[in-house]
Design brief:
- The structure is a homodimer of 333-residue chains.
- Chain A has 333 residues and is an alpha+beta fold.
- Chain A folds into two domains: 156 residues, HIT-like (HIT family, subunit A, 2-Layer Sandwich); 153 residues, HIT-like (HIT family, subunit A).
- Helices cover 25% and strands 23% of the residues of chain A.
- Chain A is built from six helices and 15 strands.
- In chain A, the strands form two sheets. Chain A has a ten-stranded antiparallel beta sheet, with helices on both faces.
- In chain A, β10 and β11 form a beta hairpin.
- The longest helix of chain A is centred in the C-terminal third of the chain and has 21 residues.
- The first copy, chain A, is globular.
- The termini of chain A are far apart.
- At the A-B interface, β2, β8, β9, α2 and α3 of A face β2, β8, β9, α2 and α3 of B.
- β2 of chain A pairs parallel with β15 of chain B.
Chain lengths: 333, 333
């Protein structure tokens, strides 16, 4: 059974996923993003090979767990956290452990095995965001859930184990450390200035202009001032909202527009790089209503970048964000 | 000129290294760990191609910046931080910036181009640690320096741009965020328990036994209880000391013994994996004397591991540390 363990020094929770336990021999050779012998569990006709769907957008005359869908959400077959596990907290000597309760779901973003998000029609990206919102809403209301994490790993180098376009949702009984840090920092700023730090960032970036990648009425995409990675990009809603689930109907369409353009720019500028994106939202209990501001952070995973950084929290970024933004802005899409 | 920029939300400092600025075309193709046409600036006879050495262990009849050395420390030719830059703090709108003052040096660990640290004699590893200590001592006494970071990136996948065995030292005008977090966590624990959290970890691990990888009189190597990565390994001095520079003469030799064995085990168990290690030490002003405890953290960089984790601070580790430790312990070296 998976469990959550807490680092006793810096209080980071880690999922130790025994269900997906790897032996040393599993490392170093795996290159399984390609469709093995033409087979993919996310393709039409293979619906019975995933756990039963928990949500699908499908044509009215189609049946659950059969073809006819354009978005399909299923529990992960090898979940990092599992709703069947009961919440239990215990000590192990000086250490703290929580049983691996929660949820781990896969959003299959298209039936088309070869279509990547950058090449999807805007309508399809919009549908993906609707699926995020629907599942966020359901999972965040479950007992014992404190955080819902929505993310996408694109390509093997960014941690994707299947190449068919998909995102993931993990619902956790704890608030991830990075989120706690953002909440704390944003709160401190709010107490000092009586303004949301993210709203201030948006205003400063709009007036500077140098780090803007893309913009529409409701969203702004920027290369952040203290970017850790080359071509790191954040997408922020211009209106102050602490939680992603509060996105409006029009917001979904506007968010899809900016996300889609950013992905097209990255694909063209950097030769379709691997990337990770994560939606940063407040915890489920509406903490941070005044001072937190949801947004998406995207990190392209470029060759030779990073190293000791991930272990020290100290980053060296060889590409000034102003240069990255200019380059992405000027790419023709 | 390089500069340090602070993230206004979570207060992470990032070096924006304009001197090593990369264009988009620099990414995705570079695979430069191999010796290009047989040429390497760290080999005997090429000493004039690096900046002049700041330290060398060499035979008495040899001359500086000529062959005859067995360890050589030189400033990085493309430094992330530079001692020639004057410390200057400024605001840019809402953002904070510090000029890129500091130091960035390379420890060339051997004249033998093809020798990796795992295969070195223990005496040579000892000499490397002596070089770390010597340079730590010099750099930490410079004006404006708040932290000295010693680390090693092994292989391209872990961020090394040259294959010739080397480590790096960066001296910074700020304390890295991860260090601040460890100091804070350790301080809180100390205030609650009146004991060092790392000393408690050592005692708990010695009595549990399950996560021990290697041990001698003065050092303990463990797979940490809440390991983020498969085969993550920490090496801790058994005696409480906040700062690496306080290591004793005998400590250097004992540390070399454990580090050397751990590297041999990893090499054999995981087919010579890429890795990063970082020495975690207190800041230079002796902060954390009672409650901080220096140690080394080693992260093997195994295929398909990681992804969204680095952006969220939330990790999924598919290999329980108990399994990793058992496997490493049982490898014959």
């Amino acid at each position: 059974m998976p469990e959550l363990r807490k680092d006793p020094v810096i209080k980071r929770w880690v999922i130790i996923a025994t269900e997906r336990a790897k032996r040393p021999s599993d490392f170093g050779t795996a290159k399984t993003t390609e469709k093995k012998g033409g087979f993919c569990p996310f393709d039409y006709g293979n619906e019975h090979l995933t756990p039963p769907e928990v949500l699908a957008f499908r044509s009215p005359n189609s049946k659950p767990n059969e073809p006819g869908w354009w978005i399909r959400v299923v529990p992960n077959k090898f979940p990092a956290l599992d709703p069947k596990i009961k919440l239990r907290r215990k000590g192990m000597g000086m250490y703290d452990v929580i049983s691996g309760t929660g949820a781990h779901e896969i959003i299959i973003e298209t039936p088309d095995h070869n279509l990547s998000m950058a090449d999807m029609k805007r309508k399809q990206v919009q549908e993906i965001i609707w699926a995020y919102k629907d599942r966020y809403d359901v999972l965040s209301k479950r007992d014992g859930i404190r955080y819902v994490l929505i993310f996408k790993n694109y390509k093997r180098e960014a941690g994707a184990s299947l190449e068919h376009s998909h995102s993931q949702i993990i619902a956790t009984p704890i608030v991830p450390k990075r989120v706690e840090e953002e909440l704390e920092g944003a709160k401190e700023y709010y107490e000092y200035k009586e303004r949301c730090v993210f709203c201030d960032i948006i205003n400063q970036e709009l007036s500077d202009g140098k780090r803007i990648v893309e913009e529409n009425d409701s969203f702004l995409a920027i290369a952040p001032f203290a970017a850790r990675f080359p071509f790191e990009t954040w997408i922020l809603p211009k209106e102050h909202k602490n939680n992603f689930v509060k996105i409006s109907d029009n917001g979904v369409s506007q968010f899809a527009e900016v996300l889609s353009s950013v992905l097209k720019r990255l694909k063209k500028a950097l030769n379709d790089p691997p990337f990770n994106y994560i939606i940063h939202s407040s915890p489920v209990n509406d903490r941070g209503k005044e001072f937190y501001h949801w947004h998406l952070e995207l990190i392209p995973r470029l060759t030779k970048v990073a190293g000791f950084e991930w272990g020290s929290g100290f980053y060296i970024n060889p590409t000034p964000p102003e240069d990255a933004a200019k380059f992405l802005r000027e790419v023709e899409i």
